[in-house]
Design brief:
Elements (H helix, E strand, L loop, with lengths): L2 H10 L4 H11 L5 H8 L4 H7 L2 E4 L2 E4 L2 E5 L2 E5 L19 H9 L5 E7 L5 H6 L3 E8 L2 H13 L5 E4 L11 E6 L23 H13 E16 L4 H6 L5 E13 L1 H12 L5 H13 L2 E17 L1 E6 L8 H11 L6 H5 L2 E4 L3 E10 L2 E11 L6 E4 L1 H7 L3 E5 H12 L3 H17 L3 E3 L1
Parallel strand pairs: 5-6, 5-8, 6-7, 8-9, 10-12
Antiparallel strand pairs: 1-2, 3-4, 9-11, 10-11, 13-17, 13-18, 14-15, 15-16
Helix pairs in contact: 1-2, 2-3, 10-11, 15-16
Length: 444
C-alpha cells in the first residue's frame, strides 16, 4: 500500500468498529485500548492480546496478525500491515505476490474433490471451496493449520485440515484438482524457515511434486503449483524440469516467469526474512550455488493433467505481460491439446486466424523499393505471443478464413509455387500445428 492510499484510509477511518479495524489491520497504526476493545467486542481485549491478535504498543495496541481480503473472503495470518522481514521461524504468510498468482492461475472449473498442499493460512483452500464439493488442505505447521481453521470458520467454509509433510497426509488418495504454493526456496543454509524452506536438497520440493502428480490425480485431474528451479551450467532448464515428470500419464505445461542470478536471489530471500546483515549465511548460500554450477534460479508455474499414454512436457519462458486471468490461459492450453491435431485430421480441417492476431513486418528501402527482412505474427490477447514466419506461411494464413479446408489451401499453394502438394504439406504441417497450439489459428 502506498503512502497516499494509507493517508486516504486514515482520513476516512472514524472511531466506529470498521474504522478501528481499518487502522489496525489495513493501515497498521496504533489504536487506543478503549477504542480497540469496543471494536473487538464481544471478543475481550485480554483475549485478543493473549491469542496474539493484538500486541501492546506505546500509546495503545497494534495488530499482532494481518487481515487481508481475497475477493470477499477475510484472511488472517502473520502478515501484519506495513512490515517486512524480522519474521519468526514459524511465520505464516498471508496473501502475497505468489499466492495471488496461484489464485489467478488455478482453474475455475468445478471439481468434486480438491487439495491444497502446504495451505499456510488457507487462502488457496478457501478459494477452492467455492468450486469443489470437498476440499482437503495440508500443512506441516501447527500454526498454519490454526490460521487455516480460523479462516475457514470466519468465512463459513468446511475444510478437511491435515497435518504432515508434503504428500504424507494424503498418501493413497486422489483428487480432481490439486494446487500448491509450497516452500520452494532453493538450497537455504541454516535452520530454515517454515514458510519458505521445504527441507529438500536444491529444488527437490518441485521435483517431488512433479514426480508424484499422476499418482495424486484422478483421470483427467489437474495439478498446479508454483516453483523455483535451478539453471545449471551446461543443461537447459527445461530439460531438467521435464525429467521430473513420470514417463507416462502426464501432460505438463511449465512456464518460467522470471530468473534471478544467485546473488540477487540470496539478497531477495535474506531481505524477506530480515537477515540482510548475515554475511556468513549469504556466503554459504552463494558457495553452494558455485559448487553446483548454478547460473540462475527460475520461478514459474507448473500445470500437470493426468492423461492416458506417454507423457508430454512443454517448457517455455513467458517474461512478457500476459492477458489475465491466467486461469483462462491454462484452460486454453489444455483444451487445445485435447484436440486431435494429427496430420490427417488437420488436413481435413478448416482454420481461421484468431481474433486479435496481426501481421507485422520489418523492411528497409532498397534499390527496388521496400525489401521485407522479416515478418512475424503478434497476439493482442491471450498469451500475447510473437512468432516469426516466412512468406510461404504468410500466404497460407491469408486464406485462413474458416471456410476453405486445409487440403484445398495446400493444393492452391502448391500450384502457385510449383511444388508437390504432399511435400508442401509435410513442410508446413509442423508450423501450422504450432500456430494452432499457440493460439494464432483456431479450428472451426
Amino acid at each position: 500500500m502506498c503512502i497516499r492510499d494509507s493517508r486516504g484510509l486514515l482520513a476516512a477511518a472514524d472511531d466506529d468498529p470498521i474504522g478501528v479495524w481499518t487502522r489496525l489491520f489495513t493501515v497498521g497504526t496504533v489504536v487506543e485500548e478503549r477504542a480497540a476493545a469496543a471494536a473487538l467486542a464481544p471478543l475481550g481485549l485480554d483475549e485478543a492480546l493473549d491469542c496474539g491478535l493484538l500486541v501492546r504498543s506505546p500509546g495503545g495496541v497494534a495488530a499482532g496478525w494481518g487481515l487481508q481480503f481475497a475477493d470477499e473472503r477475510a484472511v488472517f495470518s502473520d502478515q501484519r500491515p506495513n512490515t517486512t522481514g524480522a519474521r519468526s521461524r514459524d511465520h505464516v504468510l498471508g496473501i502475497g505476490g505468489a499466492s495471488e498468482l496461484l489464485l489467478d492461475a488455478a482453474l475455475k472449473s468445478e471439481a468434486r474433490t480438491a487439495l491444497d498442499l502446504g495451505t499456510g493460512c488457507g487462502v488457496q483452500a478457501l478459494a477452492l471451496a467455492g468450486r469443489a464439493e470437498a476440499v482437503t488442505a495440508t500443512d506441516l505447521s501447527d500454526r498454519a493449520l490454526a490460521f487455516a481453521a480460523l479462516n475457514a470458520e470466519v468465512n463459513g467454509v468446511d475444510l478437511e485440515l491435515l497435518r504432515g509433510d508434503m504428500l504424507e497426509p494424503v498418501a493413497g488418495r486422489r483428487f480432481d484438482l490439486v494446487v500448491a504454493n509450497p516452500p520452494f526456496v532453493v538450497a537455504t543454509p541454516g535452520d530454515g524457515w517454515r514458510y519458505r524452506d521445504g527441507g529438500r536438497e536444491a529444488d527437490g520440493v518441485a521435483a517431488e511434486l512433479a514426480a508424484a502428480s499422476t499418482g495424486l490425480l484422478n483421470p483427467g485431474g489437474t495439478m498446479q503449483f508454483l516453483a523455483n528451479w535451478l539453471h545449471v551450467r551446461g543443461t537447459a532448464w527445461g530439460e531438467r524440469v521435464a525429467a521430473w515428470l513420470p514417463e507416462s500419464g502426464a501432460l505438463a505445461w511449465v512456464v518460467e516467469r522470471e530468473v534471478l542470478d544467485p546473488l540477487d536471489y540470496v539478497r531477495t530471500w535474506q531481505r524477506d526474512s530480515g537477515e540482510t546483515g548475515d554475511a556468513e549465511q549469504a556466503a554459504a548460500w552463494l558457495d553452494w550455488f558455485d559448487e553446483h554450477e548454478v547460473e540462475g534460479i527460475g520461478f514459474g508455474m507448473v500445470g500437470i493433467r493426468r492423461i492416458d499414454g506417454a507423457s508430454e512436457v512443454v517448457c517455455e519462458e513467458a517474461r512478457h505481460a500476459v492477458e489475465t486471468p491466467w486461469s483462462d490461459r491454462v484452460a486454453d492450453w489444455f483444451a487445445v491439446r485435447g484436440v486431435d491435431l494429427e496430420p490427417e485430421t488437420l488436413w481435413a480441417s478448416r482454420l481461421r486466424l484468431a481474433d486479435g492476431v496481426a501481421l507485422q513486418q520489418a523492411a528497409e528501402l532498397g534499390d527496388e523499393g521496400w525489401e521485407v527482412e522479416r515478418q512475424w505474427l503478434r497476439q493482442r490477447h491471450g498469451m500475447r505471443y510473437a512468432e516469426q514466419i516466412d512468406p510461404l506461411l504468410v500466404a497460407f494464413l491469408g486464406a485462413c478464413d474458416g471456410e476453405a479446408e486445409v487440403c484445398l489451401q495446400m493444393r492452391l499453394l502448391a500450384e502457385t509455387y510449383g511444388a508437390e502438394t504432399a511435400m508442401l504439406y509435410a513442410q508446413l504441417y509442423p508450423l501450422i500445428r504450432r500456430l494452432v497450439e499457440r493460439g494464432f489459428l483456431a479450428l472451426q
